[in-house]
User: Which sequence fits this backbone?
């Protein structure tokens, strides 16, 4: 599992509207932006590790979306912004391979 922290480990606050959800110290927005940065820099190792994690997480969220109690949580990881960032990173990564 690869991800990016939004804040240093010693930070004890919650998430803010601009940072998005923080789950187990992992920033959803930070991880998405790290994916994009790795693609832009042609960092294949980091990109691949993050992409596997993002793909697994999005698949899990889509699978549990059928349960009403998980509906709000699943929207976090499968919303338009999250999907757009992942798709843009994938496009940029594929271009770096050409």
Assistant:
């Amino acid at each position: 599992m690869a991800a990016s922290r939004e804040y240093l480990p010693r930070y004890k606050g919650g998430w803010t509207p601009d940072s998005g959800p923080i789950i187990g110290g992992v920033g959803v927005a930070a991880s998405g932006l790290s994916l994009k940065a790795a693609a832009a820099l042609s960092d294949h190792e980091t990109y691949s590790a993050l992409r596997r994690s993002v793909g697994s997480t999005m698949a899990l969220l889509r699978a549990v979306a059928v349960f009403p109690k998980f509906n709000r949580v699943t929207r976090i990881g499968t919303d338009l912004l999250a999907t757009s960032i992942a798709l843009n990173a994938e496009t940029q990564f594929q271009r770096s391979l050409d």
About this structure: The first helix runs from residue 28 to 40.
